[in-house]
C-alpha cells in the first residue's frame, strides 16, 4: 500500500475526516454543503464526489448488513420531523470534537416550531 507492507491480520481503518477534507475527493471540501449528497443529475458533472471517500458503512463483502435499514430509519425520522415542525437555528456555528465518532463541541440549540395543520 503506497510502498508500505502491511502484515496479514493487521487491522486497517480509514480516517473519514481526513478523506472528507481533500479537494481531490470533494468539491469545496471545507464548506458545509449537505446538498452535495442530494444533487441532481445535472449537477454531477460540476462536483467532485469520490465514490470511496466516505464509507460510513464500509464496503464490499464485510460491509454493514444494516446499512439500508439505518438509512431508511433516518429518512423516516426526517420526514416525520419536517412534516410536523419548522426547525430553526440562530446561534454561532457548531464545531466538533473528533473522537471515535464526531461530537458537537457545544450544545445544539435548535428551535422546533410546530406546524399548523392545513384545513
From TrEMBL:
GO terms for molecular function: heme binding; iron ion binding; monooxygenase activity; oxidoreductase activity, acting on paired donors, with incorporation or reduction of molecular oxygen. Heme binds at residue 64. The keyword NAD does not apply. Belongs to the cytochrome P450 family. Its cofactor is heme. InterPro entries: CYP11_CYP27_families (IPR050479), Cyt_P450 (IPR001128), Cyt_P450_CS (IPR017972), Cyt_P450_E_grp-I (IPR002401), Cyt_P450_sf (IPR036396). Keywords: Heme, Iron, Metal-binding, Monooxygenase, Oxidoreductase. It comes from Rhipicephalus sanguineus. This is Cytochrome P450.
